[in-house]
């Protein structure tokens, strides 16, 4: 029996020497140490060993088993290290390799103008509020002094949604919502998307407006003009002058169209401003007392002004964009070409 054990040990150690990979090592393990393995078989042979020899023989089998196990453990540690090193080698990043280059994003011109307008207005003490794009006829027209049969409805070709619902044609609707919800004095601006059945180089079915409203005691056209001068200077530069031209909106009385020094030629006259040196930018006016009364505000005590530029138009002027369609195409070339920026 002793001979048999030592022979098996010799054979096992011989085979162990040749093991170089995990698969062979696993097979070796099964061959010697599994339930049907050769070492386990030896233990079974103990039955035939005379009882006085059993402790010695048993100890010998255990010694051989421990020897094989400890060598196997060493081998396994070695394989793990090798696998880890191989992984580190294959996943190594060459930090000296030139990069493929990452595409740089650009802020959309509309977003830039919105941000400038909003920053300027917040600085002047305005609160930013928003309103729904799917709007009730009442807020978009009726409360703004445009009843159902009013010819001014033709000024804004509307997407009607059935019932009293429509896609808002102007952010002026938010004026009404603000006056219903806030007590004067109030000073709000409202940026947002607006919709009209209209499509050419300067009109798009979806476009953007920026509504402003100030209600307080003793507000006059002077406040409107000085506030707008300040705002447009922030947008187009300190040398910007503005001009009021009489106009008509049902919700303001008097109403004006506001022109500003053409930022392209600084007033000298160019193709963009058709030689006038001025460019038409927005509608504004003193809030019609009827609108105040519609919102439960005493028009004898309070007055106010409102203004509502088309933001796409401001962006087109500021960034020399030829067509409003460019704003909605998300063409990377267009978006990365805003070097015509005024400021
Ligand atoms: N809502 C008008 C439009 O879309 C623009 C406008 C004009 C807004 C005068 C105003 C305003 O707040 O006072 O044509």
Structure description:
The structure is a single chain. With 343 residues, the protein is of the alpha+beta class. The protein has helices spanning 2-18, 22-33, 38-44, 54-90, 109-123, 137-140, 173-181, 221-236, 289-294, 311-319, 326-329, 332-335, and strands at residues 127-128, 134-136, 160-162, 165-167, 186-195, 206-216, 242-249, 252-261, 278-287, 303-309. The chain has a seven-stranded mixed β-sheet, with helices on both faces. Helix 1 runs parallel beside helix 4 (54-90), helix 2 packs antiparallel against helix 4 and helix 5 packs across helix 10. The longest helix has 37 residues, at 54-90. It binds 3,4-dihydroxyphenylalanine.
The CATH architecture category of the largest domain equals 2-Layer Sandwich
CATH topology of the largest domain: BirA Bifunctional Protein, domain 2
User: Could you name the ranges where pLDDT drops below 50 across 5 or more consecutive residues?
Assistant: 339-343
**Which hetero ligands occur in this complex?**
3,4-dihydroxyphenylalanine
Summarize the biggest pleated sheet: 7 strands, mixed
The fraction of residues in strands falls at: 15-25%
- Which structural class do you get from the secondary structure elements? alpha+beta
Rounded radius of gyration (Å): 42 Å
**In total, how many domains does the architecture comprise?**
2
CATH superfamily of the largest domain: Bira Bifunctional Protein, Domain 2
The outline comes out as elongated
Quickly name the level 1 CATH class of the largest domain. Alpha Beta
Q: Could you estimate the helical fraction of the residues in percent?
A: 40-55%
Termini Cα gap? 98 Å
Q: Count up the helices.
A: 12
The sequence of SSEs as H and E is HHHHHEEHEEHEEHEEEHEHHH
């Amino acid at each position: 029996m002793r001979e048999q054990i030592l022979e098996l040990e010799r054979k096992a150690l011989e085979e162990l020497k040749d093991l170089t990979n995990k698969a062979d090592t696993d097979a070796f393990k099964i061959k010697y140490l599994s339930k049907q393995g050769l070492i386990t078989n030896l233990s079974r042979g103990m039955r035939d060993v005379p009882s006085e020899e059993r402790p010695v023989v048993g100890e010998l089998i255990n010694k051989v088993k421990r020897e094989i196990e400890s060598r196997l453990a060493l081998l396994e540690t070695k394989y793990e290290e090798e696998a880890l090193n191989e992984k580190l080698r294959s996943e190594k990043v060459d930090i000296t390799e030139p990069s493929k280059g990452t595409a740089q994003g650009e802020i959309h011109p509309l977003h830039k103008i919105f941000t400038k307008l909003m920053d300027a207005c917040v600085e002047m003490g305005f609160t930013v509020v928003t309103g729904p794009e799917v709007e009730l006829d009442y807020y978009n027209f009726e409360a703004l002094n445009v009843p159902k049969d009013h010819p001014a409805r033709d000024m804004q070709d509307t997407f009607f949604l059935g019932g009293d619902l429509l896609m808002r044609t102007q952010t002026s609707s938010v004026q009404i919502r603000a006056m219903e919800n806030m007590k004067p004095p109030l000073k709000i601006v409202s940026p947002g998307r607006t919709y009209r059945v209209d499509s050419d180089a300067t009109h798009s079915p979806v476009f953007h407006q920026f509504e402003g409203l100030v209600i307080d005691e003793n507000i006059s056209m002077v406040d409107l003009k000085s506030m707008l001068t300040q705002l447009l200077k922030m947008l187009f530069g300190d040398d910007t002058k503005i001009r009021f031209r009489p106009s008509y909106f049902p919700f303001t009385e008097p109403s004006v169209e506001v022109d500003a020094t053409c930022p392209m030629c600084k007033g000298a006259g160019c193709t963009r401003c058709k030689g006038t040196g001025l460019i038409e930018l927005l509608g504004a006016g003193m809030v019609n007392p009827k609108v105040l009364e519609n919102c439960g505000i005493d028009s004898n005590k309070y007055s106010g002004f409102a203004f509502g530029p088309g933001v796409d138009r401001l962006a087109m002027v500021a960034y020399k964009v030829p067509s409003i369609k460019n704003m909605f195409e998300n063409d990377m070339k267009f978006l990365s070409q805003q070097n015509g920026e005024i400021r």
